[in-house]
Amino acid sequence: MVKRNNFTEDKNFFILNSMDDRVRIVDPKGKTVFINDVFKNASDKSLELKNYINENASFLMLQRNSTLSNTTMIEEKLIDDRYFSIKTSPIYNGDEFLGIIEVYRDITRESLMKIELFNNNRNMLDDVRFVKKIQSNILPKDNSYANLRLRSKYLPSDELSGDFFDIIKIDDNKYGIYIADIMGHGVKASIMTMFIKLTMNAILDKHPTFSPSEILFKLRDKFAKLGMESSQYFTAWLGVFDFSENKLTFSNAGHNCPPLLYSKSKDEVSFLLVSGRMISNIIEPDNYDEKMVKIEDGDRLLLFSDGAIEAKNEARKEYGLERLRDVYNREHDLEKTYKDIKKFTWGKQEDDLSLVEVEYKEI
Fold first, then answer.
1. What pTM does this model have?
2. Looking at domain 17-108, what is its CATH homologous superfamily?
3. What PANTHER family does the database record attribute to this sequence (predicted)?
4. What is the DSSP string of 67-132?
């Protein structure tokens, strides 16, 4: 605490002159009564700084007298192409108000770094939004595809998702549908979804007679040639509808979310279970098993990612396969099933969530 009004005579003020920061003191009338050497040298060279000092002193005292506050204020200002953090504090001798002390700290380097970081983050967010738009646009739209009517719920937990699904025309009587779940989220997972889409399209275009098992083997071979690190992998379930024979043939590459098939004639659902290892560079699969089921008019297939069955409520209990099966058995409707998941979790979502429903219609 300063104990006299004559600041310039206080022997302790040599400390302020030795500071690298710019310091000044303003008396109760708004007059600058002390300015340290660093500040004086700077103001002698800068008309902008000198004008700011003169204008700001009166403003500070007006503000001080109107608020009668003991509050220390901190603000940032750009003065003479330099960024300053300005700390303003009242000075008292007991109850007597003696004036205000200001400390100007040059934070130009830190401010420029923050601006650069902000711009880099903004550019990165722009890139992420661009990739997100592409990822969303390459998903199949809810629509009819020959004998199939597709509906979906695609809810990334982050800006970019590791879930992906697609429906592909093989020929007039055959359509393929698959769902894939890539390890992780973000840009890497998003780019991998695009690799899967392009590769699956290329495989089916070149090898339209391939079975689901052969398609998954080919997909794994293409992935292996990328030379990805061992921590990168994905799972996939693939089914091929054959309208001419009313059948669905399917294989699984480690996808631990076996689709549900609702039989309209039996009014019941069943899991389409088949074994197969995930697609990675860690373990080379020796075989992808393959199964076939007959399908009828009105049957529905529900594909889903682990974000559905691993969704948790407030007690950290998972939604689970059994509940999903029971709800879909009762409702056999994608929208109602999704609403039940949302109700279970109170609308909270921790992982990517995908639900894809395909209804088969005989034409």
1. 0.70
2. PAS domain (3.30.450.20)
3. STAGE II SPORULATION PROTEIN E, STAGE II SPORULATION PROTEIN E-RELATED
4. H-----EEEEEEETTEEEEEEEEEEEETTEEEEEEEEEEE-HHHHHHHHHHHHHHHHHHHHHHHHH
